[in-house]
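Quick one: histidine kinase from Streptacidiphilus alkalitolerans, structure tokens please.
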Amino acid sequence: MSTVRRSGDDVWWRSVDRGNLTGGTAMIACGAVTVLAATGLILRLVVGVLVLCAAVGNLAIRRPLPPRWGRFAAAVTIGSGLAATALVPGGLGSVPVIGGASVLPRWVPAGPARIVCVGAVSVAFGVIIMAVVGSPAGLLAGLGPWAIADRAVEHDELQAERDRAVALLAELEASRQAQQEAAAAEERNRIAREMHDVLAHSLAGLSMHLQAIRAIARRENAPASLTDPLDRAAGLARDGVQEARAAVGALRAPHLRGVDDLKALVGGFPGEAELLVTGRPGRLDPEAGHAVYRAVQEAMTNAARYATGSAIEVRVAWDERGLRVDVRDHGLPVGGRPSGVKGSGTGLRSMGERIEAVGGTVGSGPQPGGGGWHTEVRVPLSGTGAGGPDGAGVRG
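--- reply ---
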């Protein structure tokens, strides 16, 4: 689900969970039907308040909250739905009950407490439906919240395993890339050694022999038709030696990735990631571009470790002074768990050392107001000064 965009607008609003927004809209629509099904102004007002409480509670229980507030929001959602169902049997008050039951297991720890809570909701719902239809068969409706809650537990477990697999894939991809680069560097070094030991030495020997032949020809007063080609051949041999040495140096130089490679990095991320690019690209030193690439790679890997299942946003902003790169996640989703993959503890320090070596700065820490982690990297363009002060977090 990785995407790459170039835009001039600030689109951080994408952090809003569209699923939650859709669920809230559907809850309000069902509430409107319930209000319209009520008879009398007073009853409609009461049902309207219940519907509003259910909609707010439904949105709240799907957001990161302290456990006690999450349980309170779930109780408000389910209680409002039960009351609306009892007051307006022809409405859709059962929708908040089902919605609350589907999220309730996230806020109640597994064990007897969860069984009691889900069981109480199921019994209450079954009793209300029995009273509405006037038949003991209505008690069977209580199986609905129980089954929904049970399926929600299974879904959350599967989602947690999927998110953990994504984190492991991110770690594996980073390790695979490092191994490929190490293997490529070793192969380049091998080729460079072969060129230096064989080609460069052979060309140097050829040049020496041609020079010796030219000296003999000059001593013997050989005609220009012979000495001129010898001079040209000796010159070509000398040029070949210089070119071979330059090629050896180029092969031994490390391959540096840059900002242009961020598109492939984000596009190849196994989880949900988005790249946003603004401004006109400027000129960066190769070392600076490589440091930025490594910083983004480390930040995304950290997000997969500790904010497992969260969407990641990478924003690249160019201006006349330099480059700013922001990497953000939105924290663990409701009911989510970290991947369990632990970092070495040196990721942020290594990131800072790389960026500082090219005159840049790194800031890292929780986002203001909570709800995720933010890493900001700044590097100057070629020929400009360094950025502002740097800060460091403890993640990584």
